[in-house]
Amino acid sequence: MTGHAETSMAPLILTEPERPSWGFAEVFLAAAVFLAAFGIVAWVANSYLHAPAQSGLWSVLEEAAGYTILFLVLKLMFVRYGRGKTQGLLEALGWSKPGPFTPATLVTIGVVLAVVVAVLERVLLTPEVDTPFEKLLADPGSRIAVALFGITAAPVVEELLFRGFLQPVLTSAIGVLPGILVTSALFGALHLTQNAMIWQSGALIMLVGFVLGMVRHVSGSTRASSIVHAAYNFLPFVVLLVDGNPLSKK
Length: 250
What we know:
By secondary structure, the protein is mostly helical. The protein has 9 helices and no strands. The model is unreliable at 1-13 (pLDDT under 50).
């Protein structure tokens, strides 16, 4: 019998689901506020400010205004639980240090994810059609605004809402993996309209959402998933900024 030390490796086990102080009632209320805020902002922009119908710059301004209203309401909802004195809204939504991941690792995950998605677009024969998103990019000002927003503010806002606010409620109610999957499906569905309802795009965005959800859950940090999200967005939006064409059209 040869002498050797037996080694054992503990299986990878996902941590327990979070137990947020909010629930489905607050999620549905936030969804209603989301729809109302963006509806009101769009109505004001079109009726009183005469915003062009297809302008990326105006689209970014309207999104920023809508998200500002939504986060103000979330802050009021958060104060309702009496936690405002000890914990801020961002902290409650998981805006903390990235846990076991280094920033370089998170950036690498995002870049690799972008490459994988680009390859899968070809494998799935994603149609190359003009999408509503691309119609917003007619002028240089719109391209600059959309690209900068897509690399900076948009990833943070989406991670706070999807992985910080929604995902903990779902993982607490139905389990970690089902909760992350449902969050990812909703994330993909929300982006379908700007991608001309192309199912391949929806499926790939759902895949991206799943990776972001796993990073968020394992690290416990929406800051971590935001870094991955921003890194994922970086290459296509830089291409957009340079020559006005989305990377998928290359």
